[in-house]
Amino acid sequence: MNNDIFIKRGNGKLTVSNGESLLLNINPDKNSFDRTIDDDALLKKKRENNFLILLLNNFVNQCYRYKVLIKEGYFFILCDKDGYVIEIIANDQLNKDFKKLQFREGISLRLEDSGTNAINIAMEYKSLAQLYGKDHYCDLLKNWYCTAMPITDHYSKEIVAYLDISRIKIPA
After folding, report:
1. In this predicted model, what pLDDT tens digit does every residue of 22-37 receive, in sequence order?
2. pTM exceeding the 0.90 threshold for the entire prediction
3. Given 3-state DSSP classes, what are the helix, strand and coil percentages for the chain, each rounded to the nearest 5?
4. Which domains does the chain have, with CATH numbers?
C-alpha cells in the first residue's frame, strides 16, 4: 500500500472514477446491487479467504470498542482481491436494511458493477480511500460514509483482500 496516497473528498481521482462510471453506462439512479456471483463461487471464495474472515470476526467480536461501533451502526465489509463481498459484519437492524437493498455476500463492488465507491477506489489506487455519501457515483450509496483499505500479504507483497468500515446516515 502506498502510504503517501490517501484518496478522499476533493481528490481528482474521484472525478476520474466518476467519469469512468459514466463512460461504462452505469445508471447513477440504480437502487439495487446488480452483479452477484453464484453460491458455489461465493463458497469457493470464502474458503480461499477463510483465514481473513475468521481473523476479522475474532477481531471485531473480541474487542469491546468494535462491538460498540457495530451497535452504533458501523459495519465491516470484507471483499476478496477481485472486489466481491465475502463477509459483512453489522447489527441486526442493518442486516434487515441490507436485505431490502439486496446487499449481501457475493455482490460485486467493482467499478463496472457498482460505480465509484471506496472499495473500487482502494482497488484502483492500492491505497486507503475515504468517501462521503455524495462522493459515490450511484444514488444507492449516497448515504454511505466509507473508509476502505487494501490488505496486503507482506510476505508475497500482494494485495489479498479489501476491508471497508462504513456507516449509513451519520447523524449531524
Report:
1. 556 677 777 777 789 9
2. no
3. 40, 25, 35
4. 6-168 (3.30.450.40)
